[in-house]
Amino acid sequence: MVGVISLIAYLTQLNNDSVRTISVLDESGLFVDNFKSTSATTYHVLEGVELDVAKKLTQEAKNYGLLYIPQGANVDEIAQKIIFYSDDSPSLFVMDDIEDTIAENARTIKLKDSGLDATLVNSMNVKVSADLETFDGETTSKMGNGLKLIFGGAAGYLLFMFIIVYGNMIMRSVIEEKTSRIIEIIVSSVKPIKLLLGKIFGSTLAGLTQFVIWIVVGGLLMILASSIFGIELGGMPSQELINQASSSGANEELATIVAEIWRLPLLNLVVMFILFFAGGYLLYASIYAAIGAAVDNETDTQQFMLPIILPLMLAIYVGFFTVIENPHGVVSQIFSYIPFTSPVVMLMRIPFGVPIWQQLISVVILFATFYLMVVLAAKIYRVGILMYGKKPTYKELYKWLKY
Amino acid sequence: MNEILVAKDIVKRFGEYTALNKVSIAVPKGSIFGLLGPNGAGKTTLIRIINQITLPDEGLVSLDGAPLRPDHIKDIGYLPEERGLYKSMKVGEQALYLAQLKGLTKAQAKEKLRYWFKKFEITDWWDKKVQELSKGMAQKIQFIVTVMHEPKLLIFDEPFSGFDPINANRIKDEILELRDKGATVIFSTHRMESVEELCDHIALIHKSNKILDGKLIDIQREYRTNTYEIGLLSDQKEEVLKKLNETFEVSEATFKTINDELKLNIRVSPNTSANQLLNQLMPYGQLTHFVEVIPSVSDIFIQTVQNN
């Protein structure tokens, strides 16, 4: 996971790595001195040429683009008429850079025109950062909200990934037993329902073990980070401590982050993560197993994947768009009770504070649905593992339930 | 209790379709019981019910006098027709796993496997993966896995498929040996000559109904046609043939001899004894061959299936 994130960051960096050369034709002469070349962008100033010639020159030099600043009566008029020519739409970052540079210089010029000292005006800017506090007296912060998003989002997304990865694993193992024809040998020794449950619970435990390892490693890293920044462990750190950590120098941002992470309902999150992972995975795994039993090979599974992927995708989208907007809105609440979406959605909500009883109701609904689902899946499984030949339709699956 | 397995009035439906319609069989202890029937007759369904893989809708199966219980699976060894092994697992590990599923401890399983691997001279296969084995080799492993927990009842569905004649004989001998050691065998196959060779009881299932069962020898008696296969050395073959045709139902027969005799199948009325026929035949020439025609299982099979 961490590796993938670093890879993406690295690739983005790589993407921006080439040096851009931008020609500048400034007929007003007001801004030309403000464009300083950087490692990523080189500004090439053209002087005493017509616009058409400048365009041609830029194209011939295979430059990134041409920034044209015409003459005008005043700064406002000039600002309206600035044009950037390029082969195709320029990068947003590049335009932001250029526009910022011009805007800042224009402001300085205007301040000067009206007889004000730019440095004096700048010093009058006041930085405001409101402290957030809940009615219970617990201090929150905007950064805390961000962290909640990250933790909830990561938990929900991890669950989603694991259901798909481990679910596919179950499905493949069922198909393998079917295609290798060992299944009839096995079911003459073990009841199909036992085999099915063994598969489901076995892979759930394997998944959980992996998570526990991650949590332990993650916890150790947290403790390590905390001790580096001198934050006392155990319980919520006091505001004082955070302030102290904040004021302690260069690493203040990082220290605040670590402190904020300790402030999250971590224990609740971990416990619920395990419960929701177990429940959600059991639920989906039984569907995956039934699908595996219904078909003869993996290519035939496509038509049955929709009922699995659809609710999971829905959960992720609801999570990332609705929960982030309003963690306790009606839609978020409803989806955190529907068993097919609740594992993902509820996990995303938990960092924002969900009463324990609501979480428990959702867990109970989830496990009850799992029980129903495993009964149905077992019926399909029992019939399906010994059926070879044509791939069944949904109608036939329904008939199998009654055999 | 003389029967090890009794299935009574078994009914199994799949939706509208009735796969088994009030089928009853009784398998005597120590017998080799042939379960016959055309494709799709319901044999496999019946076998699966005996193995508790599927449950019957009606009827009762009892093993050794007691209704089937989950722990009976260790008393049954089943070699399905559609069989295979985990392809990427090692032979030894896999055999151990399957033995433990049948209730053997790991130590017991190891001991049994060592015995069988030695017997089949395949000890060096232990660490091979199944995908490296040929079909016949894999079949041997499956056979071992079926019998190693020494079940009271063995069910073989087409056990000889995939074997060359030498190995098929080998397996046949093993089956007979297991029977002699006290096991009962249910044997389902389409190879009628092996039924004739091995089975002492048969049951024939056709279109979900049992249409015939009993001791093979009784059935063959019942299906006898009072036909005798004879070889007659004579100088005037055509005349003799003409005369015989007037008194009996005669058809040509084929069998191997070293003389050039008349080879005939002669059918007589049921109250004519063999000696009477002999007396009638002797005046016509030298009698070199005289055998009652025993109806083959294959004939009985075809005849019964066509009549139903």
Short description:
The complex is a heterodimer of chains A (403) and B (308). With 403 residues, chain A is an alpha/beta fold.
Textual characterization of the structure:
The complex is a heterodimer of chains A (403) and B (308). Chain A has helices at residues 2-15, 51-60, 75-81, 92-113, 118-123, 142-179, 183-187, 192-228, 239-247, 252-263, 266-294, 302-325, 330-335, 342-349, 356-384, 394-400, and strands at 20-26, 41-46, 65-69, 83-86, 132-133, 139-140. Chain A is of the alpha/beta class and 403 residues long. In chain A, the strands form two sheets. A four-stranded mixed sheet of chain A has the order 2-1-3-4. A two-stranded antiparallel sheet of chain A has the order 5-6. In chain A, helix 11 runs parallel beside helix 15 (356-384). Chain B folds into two domains: 3-221, Rossmann fold, CATH 3.40.50; 226-292, Alpha-Beta Plaits (2-Layer Sandwich), CATH 3.30.70. Chain B has a six-stranded mixed sheet, sandwiched between helices. A four-stranded antiparallel sheet of chain B has the order 2-1-4-5, covered by helices on one side. In chain B, strands 12-13-11-14 form a four-stranded antiparallel sheet, with helices on one face. In chain B, strand 4 (58-63) and strand 5 (66-67) form a beta hairpin. Chain A binds chain B through residues 176-177, 180-182, 184-192, 382, 386, 388, 399, 402-403, and chain B through 14-15, 48, 51-54, 70, 73, 76, 78-80, 82-87, 98, 101-102, 142, 145-146.
Instruction: Give the mean pLDDT of chain B.
Output: 89
Oligomeric composition of the shown chains:
heterodimer
Count of DSSP helices of chain A? 16
Strand arrangement across the biggest beta sheet of chain A: 2-1-3-4
**What is the count of distinct domains of chain B?**
2
What is the count of structural domains of chain A? 2
Which CATH class of the largest domain in chain B is shown?
A: Alpha Beta
Uncertain residue segments of chain A: 234-240
Strands of the biggest beta sheet of chain B: in what spatial order?
6-7-8-3-9-10
In percent, how helical is the residue content of chain A? 55-70%
Helix residue percentage of chain B: 25-40%
Q: Please report the two chains with the greatest interface, counting residues with C-beta closer than 8 angstroms to the partner's C-beta.
A: A-B, 20 and 25 residues
Could you say what the CATH architecture of the largest domain in chain B is?
Answer: 3-Layer(aba) Sandwich
What structural category do the secondary elements of chain A indicate?
A: alpha/beta
Structural class of the secondary elements of chain B? alpha/beta
Shape of chain A: elongated
